[in-house]
Amino acid sequence: MEGLKNRIEVDNLQPEEKVTEGHRAGFVNIVGNPNVGKSTLMNDLVGERISIITSKAQTTRHRIMGIVNTPEYQIVYSDTPGVLKPKYKLQESMLGFSEGALTDADILLYVTDVVEDPEKNADFLDRVAKEKIPVLLVINKIDLVKGNEQLEEIVENWKKRLPNAEVFPTSATENFNVDNLKARIVELLPKSAPFFGKDALTDKPARFFVTEIIREKLLLNYDKEIPYSTEVIVEKFDEKEGAIHIMAVIYVERDSQKGIIIGKGGEKIKKIGISARQDIEKFFGKKVFLELFVKVEKDWRNRENKLRQFGYME
């Protein structure tokens, strides 16, 4: 994320008036089930680390845009939460982000992998199959496949499920076949003026990425339900010429979770703070003073007022 800060401010999101004749622009929305590599693919396509990545499912909670600009075109990619059967209101909001991506796309990227059952979340897949816009079926993680015969069988099974989709076997981690996917996306873009300024990288403000960096560290350092019960809010963001003072609150649902996050003598929260601060400093390119606090907000994942406060509902 180094050096990205100046390219993501909201003020940069105004479209320019003068564009190349024949300019192309469109929304390319990335959808699929959890843990198939959507965020890794998003980062590959954008060429920057926009979405956080962990091995845990449900890492992505929001719909995050990454914008690619050339003089000839603008591609607005959207990374979305994995499709799931909601168990609480937060997951209902996450599913809403994914379902919304079906309604405003010019091109749809449905991402799966070589081990996923094509019937997983069949209702959502049925909606994808009925789409009239171009659908590109990305079968990710083909580096795990043993031989061409196995890959051909996987492709055939998916062609039966999404007969109108173009198939792109890829490996996002190995960057295999991603360039061909990019080229096809450019070919399919409709003629349009850009939707955002040509220097914009994302629709999210810089503070959003501070919360995502901290949340990534929570996902990487805690197990079971702990990271899924947390939310991060930046309460103070005091940026000066040589440094930034950030105060962030980690919300949990129960007192016992607060103790686990903090750790004995504050050891765990200190580790989170050091790791997050290092990445935030790379992001902004300047010294960061980071303070972390932990607060209990009981059952916040099922409370609409809190979900609105945390940006999951309007």
Average pLDDT for all residues: 89
- Element-level helix/strand string: EHEEHEHEHEHHEEHHEH
CA-based gyration radius: 20 Å
Class from secondary-structure proportions: alpha/beta
**Helix proportion of residues, in percent?**
25-40%
Strand content: 15-25%
Q: Describe the largest sheet.
A: 6 strands, mixed
Low-confidence stretches: 1-13
Shape: globular
Structure description:
The strands form two sheets. Strands 2-3-1-4-5-6 form a six-stranded mixed sheet, with helices on both faces. Strands 7-8-9 form a three-stranded mixed sheet. The protein is built from nine helices and nine strands. With 314 residues, the chain is α/β, with parallel strands linked by helices. The radius of gyration is 20 Å and the shape is globular.
Task: Supply database-style keywords.
disordered N terminus; 9 helices; 314 residues; 3-stranded mixed sheet; 22% strand; alpha/beta; 32% helix; 6-stranded mixed sheet
Topology summary:
Layout: E1 24-32, H1 38-46, E2 64-69, E3 73-79, H2 89-100, E4 107-113, H3 122-129, E5 135-140, H4 148-161, E6 166-169, H5 178-188, H6 206-221, E7 231-239, E8 243-252, H7 255-262, H8 267-284, E9 287-296, H9 304-309
Parallel strand pairs: 1-3, 1-4, 4-5, 5-6, 8-9
Antiparallel strand pairs: 2-3, 7-8
Helix pairs in contact: 6-8
